[in-house]
Please model this.
Amino acid sequence: MKATQEQLRVKLQEALGAAFGRDYAEADPILVSASNPKFGDYQANVALSLAKQLGQQPRAIAQQIVAKLDVSDICKPPEIAGPGFINLKLKTEYLEAQLKAIQTNTRLGVTPTKNPQRVIVDYPSPNIAKEMHVGHLRSAVIGDCLSRIVEFVGHEVQRISHVGDWGTPFGMLIAYLEEAYPEALTTTESLNLGDLSSFYRKAKKRFDADENFQQAARQAVVNLQAGDEKTLLAWKIVCQLSSRAYQAIYDLMGISSDIIERGESFYNVLLPEVVEELDKKGLLVENQGAKCVFLEGFTNREGEPLPLIVQKSDGGYNYAATDLAAIRYRVQVDKVQRVIYPVGGEQTNHFAQIFQVGKKAGWITDDLEFVHAPFGLILGENGQKLKTRSGEAVRLQDLLDGAIAHARADIENRIKVEEREETEEFVSNVAQIIGISAVKYADLSQNRTSNYIFSYEKMLALKGNTAPYMLYAYVRTQGISREGKIDFEKLGADASIILREETELTLAKHLLQLDEVISEVEKDLLPNRLCEYLYQLSDKFNKFYENCPVLKAEEPVRTSRLVLCDLTARTLKLGLSLLGIRVLERM
Model:
């Protein structure tokens, strides 16, 4: 009920101005949702904050505000509680009118922003020639979700995958393939990404132990940078093979197909310009042969200022230089107003450093927002980083396949218990949607900044804050439609909405909070807020369904309750779609 909150905020500010003078007309009324429904729906706490300023008791201030406050079209008469809290309870007829207004609205009352921006979300950014592993899950899932929400709010979103596709790792791999498997460097058909990852590990082992191989790898990098035809062809084959394998995983996960791959190689030609510009602006300092920018607030173990190396002493560049080139390009060419980096929390210092350099260089100005959205680790049942028994990171493909297999076993068991007959196509489709949804929802429902323990059993549970519970709530609404042979789309815009029971009122209020929740997530980039909203919606709908007969109710209550079912279904479907989750008609 963002629109409702905004109306109440304006009315409270008008009352403040009328009670204490024009200077107070823009004071923050500190309007929040009531912590306990028995006190009302909203609570204004401004009286307590003004006590010292006005030299009056908070309760006396609250009384003067209420005397000038006209909310009769929205709320019941305001009540003052405790030391000076102003409690506001929405009128039933107001709620009915609000539901009526969103009944035929495809966006369910969520109005697009009046100030659209151009936004880049930087994800999932794997490294070419390496298989995606569990460490890439959160960036892919969170990045996709944030892109969907920011886009739904009305901003223009570019999804850019800043892939690692340049530098020494490629020299190592190409040198190894030239030596051990030269036919692989002629076509993308002779290898798969698993082979490539295996070769990469062998190449790294050789690089660490063999000086002659180190020289060959470095020469391959030189050849690549010089545009050597044979080396460039090998590089392109590796990149194409990797991109194809990544796309298969994105498709399985339901990640948007609008991702633009823009690797480190894209910015390679711009790196000398970045160094030259930083030097002209007096930001570069030579330190032990390297060109650096010294940063404020960062020191080494000895307490000395810590430099950010932009160009190494041998003339090469590191990924900090590439990230700076990306910032500069995104501002000057992409013309963005906001860039969101959903990247692990271990990179927090790195982003603080490159953002500081970007500001010193004048690329990131006060009207632009570059924000790192850090996330925690995925842990195993032992509380440590999720790894295989051999100590390697779990392949993302294996993780997803495992979720689908667990979901399938659960579905087959339920079909057997319920003595149902279902086709193989139905079972496979439901298993995939539930399995993938469970993995994504388990990730998004956590506070982004926290670590969490990966557990198929917990994420596939039919009860609690899980994807299956959300999907089941949606399925229940569609079951009502099938049982009553009701076409929700034909209920009619003129259908009356009548809220009599407490569970109806509770559900109605929650349905009208969708716009507020989406607005919050778009600002603070915490998808778990939307997950919690959907979980509460499912819970409130289930209580409504258990306490209020729908199909057996008399008219006009029957149609009113069908509208509530339809609005719940559409809200669940929209909310889950913003999380990147598809719904099911049956489970």
In short: The chain has a mean pLDDT of 92. The two ends are 32 Å apart (CA to CA). The longest strand covers residues 290-299. Residues 37 and 149 are 29 Å apart (CA to CA).
